[in-house]
Structure prediction request, 113 residues.
Amino acid sequence: MGPIFRTVKRIFFWRFDRTAWQYDILCVLILVFIFLTPKSWFENSERTTGQGHQNPVQRVYFSVDKALTGQLELSEVERRVREVTGKPETRVISYHPTEDSQGKSISYEVDIR
Prediction:
């Protein structure tokens, strides 16, 4: 148990010199992790459908006309989002306007699926 504990302790507290072969192995392991880790490990998967299936939610922004007063209806937001994304099957999950300092809507932030 003594040699195993010492080895684990040396690795955990990293008691190796920079010129040691153990340091080279650690650098190679770090590079392997960086370049071979799947992108999906780092994607946000908090939002799911009611059945628990992963279905990514995307956020889209679009600006509105300066002459527009009031808020857009859901059908108009869906039409504009489909126009911006080029995907006719896009579904709007939620949306809300972003306003300037005078309180006028300048753009919409839309979550789509």
